[in-house]
Design goal:
The protein has 123 residues and is α+β, with helices and mostly antiparallel strands. The chain has one domain (2-115). It is built from three helices and nine strands. It has helices spanning 2-17, 21-24, 91-96; strands spanning 27-33, 41-46, 49-53, 58-63, 69-74, 81-85, 88-89, 108-109, 113-115. It has a four-stranded antiparallel β-sheet with strand order 3-2-5-6, with no helix packed on it. A three-stranded mixed β-sheet has the order 4-1-9, with no helix packed on it.
Length: 123
Amino acid sequence: MKKIIWLVSLLSALLVAGCSSYCCNNQQPIYIDTPPVCGAHCTVTNNRGCWLIPSTPGLILILRSNQPLFIEVRKCGYCDQHFCVLPRMTLNTLVFGKFKRCCRSSDYYYPDAVHIPMVPVGQ
């Protein structure tokens, strides 16, 4: 009987711990940096919205999605950069996903920071 209670307690703790901020929140902050320069204009889009960083480096709050995140960076004197970030599945989705009917956008997350190197025109 004690083993059953212990097992139920352990499973309950895992279910509660599996619901971290990554899996229960549709928003995610992302830091974008453009070494070696500052002051680049950045446009970030996915199927859930479009966000702007008027001057890099910068932090934006995006809506998470199971679709790629597209980042476009522009700065005078530098080549335009186009960058694609693929979403990752949360651990909760990987472990318990087969028990769900569908995956929500909160079941995915992007990296916390994206570094996009800028290249001067003519190099």
